Amino acid sequence: LGPAQSPGPHLSVPIHRPNIDPVSLLTFWNPPTTAQVTVELVPPNAAEGKDVLLRVHNLPANLLGCAWFKGTTINPRREIVSYAADSQEITPGFAHSGRETLYHNGSLLFQNISLEVERVIGQLRVYPELPKPNITSNNSDPVENVDSVVLTCEPQTQNTSYLWSVNSKSLPDSARLELSLDNRTLTLHGVTRNDTGPYECETWNLVSASRSDPFTLNVLYGPDAPTISPSDSYYRPGANLSLFCNSASNPPAQYSWLINGSPQPSSQELFIPNITVNDNGSYACLVYNPGTRLNKFTVKTITVS
Questions:
Q1: Can you tell me the distance from the alpha carbon of 160 to that of 28, in angstroms, rounded to the nearest whole number?
Q2: Domains of the chain (ranges, CATH numbers)
Q3: Which of 64, 82, 235, 295 has its CA 20 to 30 A from that of 263?
Q4: For 174, what's the count of Cα atoms within 13 Å in the CB-facing half-sphere?
Q5: Which ranges carry the Ig-like domain (predicted)?
Q6: Residues 67-98: pLDDT tens digits?
Q7: Taking the mean position of all CA atoms in its chain, how far away is CA 223?
């Protein structure tokens, strides 16, 4: 329907918001009429692939016809569909995609709404069904107190909120933790062995939510200064000497011993049966971390008398 074919006044009801593709409803009637035509979006937010209804209220009783257009201008090539009240005829327009249905009450149904084509229709914002997110890291093996790590919640989706948790709790207040403006990336400055996690990211919009699988950081640390046990330093001749060396380290440390500066077979434990006074001296445990390439050592003095 166009103004030239309509003897009565007409009303254009634009339904839009800035920077989006709007639609307009054009109605024609014979005077008098006083009610203001309004359009309700049902639902106000819809998931991609679902249906949405632009429900018309206060349509004039003396309606001659109505037409829906894409955009705010009355352009025949942007007409979606029109309705003539006298003949009850509904006619698809140039902009009809086959997924729009016009009812005799003027309401317009969009079926299988598309995020690309109808990203926003009027005040309706179309949200995608969110895929399951996953966490990626820019550093698979960060070194303690050396490296910073950036965790990213993938994929990036428009109109989506991101929420992080660690050890099944909200992120703690820490100067070492930094979120991006959209919360999609989490930066850990100067990682420590306590930052292994697990981490989870949750994505949500008004129609769906999804949570990632737990993600654990493999933080390389150590070796810490080794300890030698037992603490005993004095032994009787003929006793068995068994020393055990231990150091916190990731990956596990490599162990070696020196007795009075003389290298011994690599092992975490040193065993000497039936010791004599010749076994007096310094016993050094050396530890090496192949991941951090750091080493430490501890010396214990053994006296046999």
A1: 40
A2: 3-127 (2.60.40.10), 134-211 (2.60.40.10), 227-304 (2.60.40.10)
A3: 235
A4: 16
A5: 131-218, 223-303
A6: 888 776 667 778 888 888 778 889 998 888 88
A7: 34
Task: Give one DSSP letter per residue of the chain, joined into a string.
Answer: --GGG-SS-EEEEEE--TTS--EEEEEEEPSP--PPPEEEEESSEEETTS-EEEEEES--TTEEEEEEEESSS--GGGEEEEEETTTTEEEE-TT--S-EEE-TTS-EEEPS--TTT-SEETTEEEEPPPPPPEEEES-SSPBTTT--EEEEEES--TT-EEEEEETTEEPPP-TTEEE-TTS-EEEESS--GGG---EEEEEE-SS-EEEPPPB----BB-PPPPEEES---EE-TTPPEEEEEE---BSPPEEEEEETTEE----SEEEESS--GGG-EEEEEEEEETTTTEEEEEEEEEEE-
Mean pLDDT, residues 174-200 taken together: 95
Q: Give residues with Cβ within 8 angstroms of 303, minimum separation 6.
A: 233, 234, 235, 280
CB 288 within 8 A of CB 253: yes
Output phi, psi for 5, to 5 deg.
-95, 0
Distance from C-alpha of 61 to C-alpha of 33, rounded to nearest angstrom: 8
Round to whole Å and give the CA distance between 184 and 134.
11
Residue that is written with structure tokens 């327009």 in the block: 93
Give pTM, 2 decimals.
Answer: 0.61
Measure the CA–CA gap between 181 and 199, rounded to whole angstroms. Answer: 19
Alpha-carbon gap, residue 82 to 80, rounded angstroms? 7
Three-state SS for 168-208 is CEECCCCCCEEECCCCCEEEECCCCHHHCCCEEEEEECCCC
pLDDT digits (tens, 9 = 90+) for 237-287: 999 999 999 999 999 999 999 999 999 989 999 999 999 999 999 999 999
CB atoms within 10 A of CB 80: 21
